[in-house]
Write a structure and sequence with these properties.
41% helix; globular
Length: 195
């Protein structure tokens, strides 16, 4: 991560928690399927406040998370403690995180991968991921494609009622997102539409 990068600070973290307090059941169910398949250690880079990590821990999966924002991690630790869980959380970036093992599943949900905007950051992250996936491990991440954003804007502009519904929906931020699953041994892509 570049030195100029700024992690989510306290106010951003508070807003994030108000805007996205829990994960949708559809999205969680999707990731839980991959967690069940993994049958081993799981890593969530950019884990934020633990919307996915904590429910997975509650289900008994072995999940480690890291994030660049100490404020996001503080919220995650507090929630973990309230739930009686012992979350393994590390303040780190892809460049500074030191894995203890290879992971059967590495996942980055909710478009967080799109927060990496510099080509060098993206390349570094993908190299890290490919280095720390176990044989036959999977990397799953969500991205908002330009096509999905343009499509959404066109639909929204032609249907003002849809815009109002979109703004009031608690899961609206998950529109037209593609989930990419990469299997290290045999690359594959799967698409998962959340809305």
């Amino acid at each position: 991560m570049q030195l100029a990068s700024i992690p989510y600070r306290n106010l951003c973290t508070q807003y994030y928690e108000l805007d996205k307090p829990i994960v949708s059941s559809d999205a969680l169910a999707h990731y839980l399927e991959y967690a069940k398949e993994a049958q081993g250690p799981i890593l969530e880079p950019m884990c934020g406040t633990g919307r996915f990590l904590l429910p997975m821990l509650e289900k008994g999966y072995r999940v480690t998370g890291f994030d660049y924002s100490p404020h996001m991690l503080d919220v995650c630790r507090k929630k973990s403690k309230e739930l009686g869980l012992n979350a393994e959380l590390v303040e780190a970036t892809f460049e500074t995180f030191i894995p203890r093992c290879k992971y059967n599943l590495i996942f980055i949900p909710s478009g967080s991968f799109c927060l990496l905007t510099d080509q060098k950051q993206i390349s570094q992250a993908l190299k890290f991921i490919s280095s720390w996936l176990a044989p036959n491990g999977k990397f799953i991440f969500e991205i908002e494609t330009l096509k999905s954003i343009v499509s959404f804007i066109k639909r929204s502009c032609s249907q003002e009622m849809r815009i109002a519904k979109f703004r009031s929906s608690s899961t609206a931020y998950m529109f037209n997102i593609n989930v990419l699953c990469i299997n290290v041994k045999e690359p594959c892509i799967s698409i998962f539409g959340l809305l």
